[in-house]
Amino acid sequence: MTEPTPNAMPQPEPEPIEREMPVSQPVFVKALKWSVVATVLMIIVFGLIGWLVSEERGLIGGVLGAAGAGVFFALTLGSIAFANRFVESDLYVPMFFGIVVGGWLLKFVLFIVAALLLKSQPWLDPTILFIAVIVGVLVSLAIDAFVVLKSRIPLVSGR
């Protein structure tokens, strides 16, 4: 073990790196929060509707459909929020679109795989599942439109 030299100069603490985020970042965070609330409410509502329509099979279909829609909300908004971390890069625009489009492709593949795996399962009601997913997509569009319309984003900014 080496002993510290008495004349050694103390090293200054490195400054924390502070990233500049685009002014639209709070919009996406707000949309993500509303999407979480909507997903929880849809799981409860479609679970109840599914139970009333076809008992256990409907409950499973409603909960899976609403939860799947919630995962899709999170993938889109999460990919946008993640892509915004690279705002200071010279390659921000191609990186942003690559990450977001990659998220869309991932959602498409997940949807196709889930549809193929779940379409003929005897333990869920596919009609309730389908309705829950469609309503989830519509709720997602409504949340996105509402948050964007109610948000104040400056027209001129550094980024």
**Mean pLDDT across residues:** 85
Tell the overall outline.
elongated
Number of strands: 0
- What is the terminal separation in angstroms? 50 Å
Low-confidence sequence ranges: none
Number of distinct helices:
3
Proportion of beta-strand residues: under 5%
Q: What is the structural class?
A: mainly alpha
Biggest sheet details: none
- Percentage of helical residues? 55-70%
- From the alpha carbons, calculate the radius of gyration and give it in angstroms: 23 Å
List the secondary-structure elements in sequence, H or E.
Answer: HHH
Short account of what is shown:
By secondary structure, the chain is an all-alpha fold. 70% of the residues lie in helices and 0% in strands.
Explain what you see.
- With 159 residues, the chain is mainly α.
- 70% of the residues lie in helices and 0% in strands.
- It is built from 3 helices and no strands.
- The radius of gyration is 23 Å and the shape is elongated.
- The model has no long low-confidence stretch (mean pLDDT 85).
